[in-house]
């Protein structure tokens, strides 16, 4: 990363050859050979491809497409703008965990979204309970059009860290799919603010 930000380091003999090669490869993908240049609106293609390959490996071979990956600073706001359509006749709803952090709630309110809370189970380490999610979704559909499920990992403000296998287990995927799909996109925030869109 340092070599991409300060390419003069590529002339420094103290950098290993593989580091130089990766930095040069990335810089070739950037207009003008600079990471400071404007990129495609969804991010640098090479990085999106690498992220897609990583997600496929991480999720046990479940395919991921670079076309479905958006790399942005302030991605939370960008994704909300893509999902929330304030001109729709029915208000757009987003399921959010309780507890959650205030800035996300404010971002939803600023976009005109209806907030649909689902409560995490404190007794089981602030876990997401599918039955609670199902109830929240059912309640939300009475007053708005739920389009997204927000999952925060690590939990904010709880600090609870869920390992990826918890969300990637076939049983959890199956339960979430039966509960939410095909009507919802799934926003995961983090690896620290981690966002995942389900079809």
Automatic annotation (TrEMBL):
GO biological process: L-alanine catabolic process
Domain Aminotransferase class I/classII large: 18-169
Record-listed E.C. numbers: 2.6.1.2
Reaction catalyzed: L-alanine + 2-oxoglutarate = pyruvate + L-glutamate
Keyword tags: Aminotransferase, Pyridoxal phosphate, Transferase
Source organism, top-level taxon: Eukaryota
Cofactor dependence: pyridoxal 5'-phosphate
GO molecular function, one term: L-alanine:2-oxoglutarate aminotransferase activity
Enzyme class label: transferase
Pathway where this protein functions: Amino-acid degradation; L-alanine degradation via transaminase pathway; pyruvate from L-alanine: step 1/1
Family matches, as Pfam families: Aminotran_1_2 (PF00155)
Known partners and oligomeric status: Homodimer.
Family the entry assigns: Belongs to the class-I pyridoxal-phosphate-dependent aminotransferase family. Alanine aminotransferase subfamily.
Name of the protein described by the UniProt record: alanine transaminase
């Amino acid at each position: 990363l340092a070599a991409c930000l300060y390419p003069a380091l590529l002339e420094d003999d103290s950098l290993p050859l593989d580091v130089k090669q990766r930095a040069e490869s990335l810089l070739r993908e950037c207009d003008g050979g600079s990471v400071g240049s404007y990129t495609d609106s969804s991010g640098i293609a090479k990085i999106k491809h690498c992220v897609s390959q990583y997600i496929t490996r991480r999720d046990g071979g479940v395919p991921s497409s670079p076309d479905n990956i958006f790399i942005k600073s302030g991605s939370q706001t960008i994704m909300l703008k893509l999902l929330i359509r304030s001109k729709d006749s029915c208000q757009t709803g987003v399921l959010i965990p309780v507890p959650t952090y205030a800035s996300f709630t404010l971002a939803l309110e600023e976009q005109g979204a209806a907030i649909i809370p689902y409560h995490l189970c404190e007794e089981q380490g602030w876990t997401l309970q599918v039955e609670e999610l199902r109830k929240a979704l059912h309640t939300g559909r009475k007053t708005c059009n739920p389009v997204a499920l927000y999952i925060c990992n690590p939990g904010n403000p709880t600090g609870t860290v869920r390992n990826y296998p918890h969300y990637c287990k076939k049983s959890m995927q199956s339960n979430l799919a039966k509960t939410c799909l095909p009507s919802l996109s799934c926003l995961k925030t983090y690896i620290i603010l981690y966002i995942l869109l389900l079809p």
